[in-house]
Amino acid sequence: MPPVHVGIIGCGTVGSGVARLLVERAEMFSRRLGVPLRLKKVAEVDAARVQALGWERDLFTSRDADVLDDPAIDIVVEVIGGVDTADRTAIIHTMVENIRQGGEGPCAYPKDLFERLPAMTKQDDPTPLLPRHWLEARRKEAADREAA
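-> structure tokens emitted (148 positions)
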């Protein structure tokens, strides 16, 4: 199975810890997830933090857009500052894990979600985008394709 490429935005205490885990425990993640995770790029504006890790310079960028716009990156982990950010990250992780446990790949839900969200307005019902409803719709679509 091809690796899932991860980009990280923020390389402070949490971001550098996540980066280290992805690199140093790559085999453990691969066994547990059934797919290898590869750290592709890290965005950090503080050059001292980058140098402190001692990794190759080409892994780092000072621009978030270099991570967000890289088509080779499958998942972006944003770990910039504080508890609120950690809460949001935990919510996203929980949603993706629920989708994975429902039999879908780890990238399918976020990809579909982020393709559909920009076209939505405040008047649109977000319920179909909730993980449980999204999984039900995917299963129905697959059953309809099989029946056709």
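DSSP finds seven helices and four strands in the chain.
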